[in-house]
């Protein structure tokens, strides 16, 4: 079930990536990264909508390891 726009962006991007609709080197959308950060208890973006460098790296590692 999609519960947020960030989750919907993640699901759409992941589907497109897995099915070859977008190139292998297409970066993860920032809002999709926000969803993964929340889902995996890495943290929320700050008041400006940014993840810290540590959070950003944890999200990337999570995506590479689990998806």
Lay out the secondary structure:
Layout: H1 5-18, H2 30-39, H3 53-66
Helix pairs in contact: 1-2, 2-3
Brief rundown of the structure:
With 67 residues, this protein is mainly alpha-helical. The protein is 57% helix and 0% strand. The chain is built from three helices and no strands.
Summed over residues and divided by their number, the pLDDT gives a mean of 93
Helix content: 55-70%
Report the end-to-end length measured between terminal Cα atoms: 18 Å
* Helix and strand element order: HHH
Radius of gyration: 12 Å
Largest sheet: none
The coarse overall form would be: globular
How many individual helices? 3
Detail the poorly predicted runs: none
Backbone structural class: mainly alpha
Strand share of the residues?
Answer: under 5%
Q: Count up the domains.
A: 1
């Amino acid at each position: 079930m999609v519960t947020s726009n960030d989750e919907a962006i993640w699901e759409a991007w992941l589907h497109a990536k897995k099915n070859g609709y977008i190139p292998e080197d297409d970066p993860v959308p920032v809002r999709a990264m926000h969803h993964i950060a929340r889902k995996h208890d890495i943290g929320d973006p700050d008041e400006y909508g940014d993840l810290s460098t540590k959070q950003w790296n944890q999200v990337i590692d999570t995506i590479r390891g689990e998806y």
